[in-house]
Write a structure and sequence with these properties.
The chain has about 300 residues and is α+β, with helices and mostly antiparallel strands. It contains six helices and 14 strands. The strands form two sheets. Strands 1, 2, 5, 6, 7, 8, 9, 11, 12 and 14 form a ten-stranded antiparallel beta sheet that branches. A hairpin with a 5-residue loop joins strand 11 and strand 12. It is elongated. Bound molecules: 2-acetamido-2-deoxy-beta-D-glucopyranose (4 copies). The site of one 2-acetamido-2-deoxy-beta-D-glucopyranose (NAG) has 4 residues, from helix 2.
């Protein structure tokens, strides 16, 4: 029996780890770490000719190819007063940057399809599939002399009107048979929220209350959406693997349950044998043991206090 347990355990563990190893290996696995690399390269790329209010694209090294970064430096006051437009992102007037002393550097990332894949590793996207690259909008403190500083992240919070993210130019998903993609918002704490695009806006436009990373997702696997064969293989393989794993785990549980049940039955048998033995002893000695110690009726207060009527 024990050898069966260990065999099942080994199979379950092997299945689990091979599924993990099978996922795409990227040199950077953490979405947050990627943000830090992009921040560092962006600040490094800015020179003294960088002018406030002018959007500039950032050159990244070859090992981050596929990621597009654009940046703009703004005065916090004018950002709040006039809002801003940075590629997919539109910030309406009233938007607040906090804490902001004077100027803010906005960084917009388009991770492209290759790098967006790390969001599958960092967030629980089971049942969903990205149909747009992940885009991000982050803010950092800055001043005129960008080189001499230690940038830290600032918060962007929408005023009355939300931020909007227009995926129309960057999604490869065309609405077919009424499937409207959902807006995924990837929060800094590892949570992901899904929302329908607001009914008033085009279906590839999402809204947000604050800075962060965003993407369009659809439930997967969709019947109408053609996937690459390799993706199918991965999906089918991992489904079968998961089913097999669940089945084996079920076997293991059943085996354990049977074992526990057997043991408790043995214990019950032993207890009964012991009780019968004790009964025989007491009958031999002509002593009637009290049937139960807890059955004496407890005294009841006979006359309840009844308050006199008023
Ligand atoms: C970014 O730059 C800071 C300051 O120069 C450094 O401490 C940090 O390790 C860098 N991070 C990455 C991910 O390169
Ligand atoms: C990219 O390559 C450079 C060297 O060219 C290296 O210093 C840097 O750490 C690499 N960055 C990442 C994100 O792998
Ligand atoms: C994405 O990855 C594929 C396969 O690894 C590669 O051929 C392609 O050049 C990459 N695309 C970009 C934009 O880096
Ligand atoms: C989409 O592309 C069109 C044409 O290139 C451009 O005019 C428009 O500003 C783009 N929209 C966004 C949100 O990037």
């Amino acid at each position: 029996m024990d050898s069966i347990f260990s065999l099942i355990l080994i199979v379950v563990v092997t299945l689990g780890s091979s599924t993990l190893l099978g996922s795409k290996a990227q040199s950077i696995k953490s979405a947050h770490l990627l943000d830090l690399y992009i921040r560092n390269y962006t600040f490094k790329s800015l020179d003294k000719h960088f002018r406030t209010g002018i959007v500039q694209s950032v050159n990244l090294p070859a090992n981050l190819s596929g990621i597009r970064v654009d940046t703009v430096r703004l005065r916090c006051g004018s950002l709040t007063r006039y809002g801003a437009h940075l590629k997919e992102f539109h910030l309406s007037s009233g938007v607040i940057v906090h804490p902001c002393i004077e100027r803010v550097l906005l960084i917009r990332q388009n991770l492209g399809y290759n790098w967006s894949a790390i969001y599958y590793a960092n967030y629980d996207l089971t049942g969903y599939e990205l149909v747009s690259p992940v885009v991000g909008l982050l803010a950092y403190n800055t001043d005129e002399d960008v080189k001499s500083m230690n940038p830290f992240q600032l918060g962007i919070v929408a005023g009355e009107k939300p931020l909007t993210i227009d995926f129309t130019n960057i999604t490869r998903f065309t609405i077919a048979d009424g499937i409207i993609p959902l807006c995924a918002s990837f929060e800094g704490d590892g949570r992901m929220t899904l929302a329908k695009p607001p009914p008033s806006s085009p279906s590839h436009v999402c809204v947000a209350k604050r800075h962060g990373h965003f993407g369009l997702v659809i439930a997967s696997p969709p019947e109408q959406f053609k996937k690459r064969i390799s993706q199918w293989k991965v999906a089918v393989g991992s489904t079968i693997g998961a089913a097999l794993g669940a089945f084996l785990l079920g076997l293991l549980l059943v085996a354990m349950l049977v074992r526990v049940k057997k043991r408790s039955r043995m214990e019950a048998l032993e207890r009964r044998a012991y009780e019968e033995e004790a009964l025989q002893v007491s009958m031999v000695g002509h002593v009637r043991a009290p049937t139960a110690s807890g059955t004496r009726t407890t005294p009841v207060i006979e006359h309840e206090y009844i308050p006199p009527p008023r």
